[in-house]
Design goal:
By secondary structure, the protein is α+β, with helices and mostly antiparallel strands. It is 38% helix and 20% strand. The protein contains seven helices and five strands, in the order H-H-E-H-H-H-E-E-E-E-H-H. The model has no long low-confidence stretch (mean pLDDT 86).
Amino acid sequence: MRLPSTAHTTRPWRIHEIAGDFQVEDVWALPTPGGPDDLPHLVRQIANGAGDGTTISSPAYRILFSIRWKLGKLLGWDKSGAGLGARVQTLRDRLPADLREAPRGPDVHSAPFVSVYQLHDEWAAEIANRTVHAVMHIGWVPDEAGGYRGQMAVLVKPNGLFGALYMAGIKPFRYVGVYPALFRAMGRKWQANAAERSTS
């Protein structure tokens, strides 16, 4: 379920300290009900590939990502000189000392997201290319049923006019073909791993 930006901006996340110049693109409630200490399970699930082509059966999702990666290769959007440490500095360079010393968290295997930091209730990972510098922020929040669930915010800093046009152009595809398939797969895998979480 899509949430208002305030669902992210009003919480005291540490990401606000280091990504204040990014705009909130999307905020979503994730289908991942759990207990107060379950964020590491969700981080591990995302990092290990819940949301890659092997867990998502939607043809639209697979086609959209295939087109995106082929265009990126053809137009040079994803070259090493366009990413972190080249076109933009990694957000790890902005971290205060306590976050720099905290666990960094895992990188995402199925997409070029690099972990910035991981805490008990939040995890941030970043990606950069010729179109945008973006952050996937996963928070762990109380839900209306008295438990907890994941919440994902996408924060972006488009690369000039081209980046802004790119983000506007892909928005309908993200809402129709990407997010619904991604979250269905995430929810299925989360439910399938319920027994593992209860014994850890």
